[in-house]
Amino acid sequence: MQICKVKNYQELSRKAANLIAAQVILKPDSVLGLATGSSPVGTYEHLVAMYENGDLDFSQVTTVNLDEYKGLAGSDEQSYRYFMNTHLFHKVNIDHAHTYVPDGTEPDAEKACQAYNELLHKVGPADIQLLGLGHDGHIGFNEPSDHFEDETHCIDLTETTIQANKRFFESEEDVPKQAYTMGIGTIMRCKKLLVIVSGKDKAQILKQVVQGPVTPEVPGSILQFHPNCTIIADEDALSEMTI
Ligand code: GLP
User: Fold this and answer.
1) Which ligand 1 atom is nearest residue 38's CA?
2) Which of 129, 101, 131 is nearest to 191 (CA)?
3) Residues 147-188: pLDDT tens digits?
4) Residue of 81, 59, 57 whose CA lies nearest to 68
5) What SS3 class is residue 117?
6) Residue 188: closest CA among 136, 226, 144
7) Chain centroid to CA 25: how far?
8) What is the DSSP track for 67-87?
């Protein structure tokens, strides 16, 4: 794991965008694994700005997203498809047919997960996968568990995650209780991983992810075993660690 310490969220976003941009410049038909949540918002803003300046071309890029709430359609403002469309896809010259997010409208979990796995096998492992970190150590929506799941699966969201994500919904009851998520195995097979972590509220869990034992109880800890994993974290997120 390579840890890149930055001052604050602004610097984190700039650096993460630069690394993704470098990937696209070097390989215009890259497969980008993308993430949602508050952490990547600034990164996407910078990528959009680079596109607007004529420095970045997304026309040959394919994207695969980590996860989606079960039961939410792409037209729902809280869905991750909607998030991706508004923060990135509708603002750059990407071919929308080449942007993939699990289908939250498919009520049959087995069907939804199988379809996404087939897609992931077809497009291949992402050249670079962007990851945020949940307060309970989840990556994608791989919640703490007694084992690591290999491929896409349906997950029951933990109380911590529901509490953390309710800020985006009108009320707690509106937060979906399940999600479809890419598995840990799929994430680990990506060529490069780029993890972005910001804020004091992530300091304790980041320390466990980086310096604690590798265990499915802290899903992000598996990243210690990835051969090409970069963590960009700000001073607040690193405040519990001496690096
Ligand atoms: C969400 C998403 C994750 C994200 C994480 C952290 O629930 N499923 O992909 O990385 O939680 O979110 P945030 O960046 O808002 O703290």
Assistant:
1) 15
2) 129
3) 999 999 999 999 988 998 999 999 999 999 999 999 999 999
4) 81
5) helix
6) 226
7) 21
8) EEETT--TTSTTSHHHHHHHH
**Amino acid present at 193:** L
Tokens 């699966």 — which residue? 153
Which two three-digit tokens encode residue 71? 């039961």
Distance from the alpha carbon of residue 112 to the mean position of ligand 1, in angstroms? 21
Residues with CB under 6 A from ligand 1: 35-39, 66-67, 132, 134, 140-141, 161, 165
Residue type, 107: P
- Nearest CA owner, ligand 1 atom 6: 134
pLDDT digits (tens, 9 = 90+) for 99-137: 999 999 999 999 999 999 999 999 999 999 999 999 999
What backbone torsions phi and psi does residue 101 show, to the nearest 5 degrees?
-140, 145
In the chain, DSSP assigns E strands to 2-6, 31-34, 62-65, 67-69, 99-100, 128-131, 153-156, 178-181, 193-197, 229-234
Cα separation, 145 vs 150, whole angstroms: 13
> Which residue stretches of 55-169 are H helix?
80-87, 109-123, 159-165
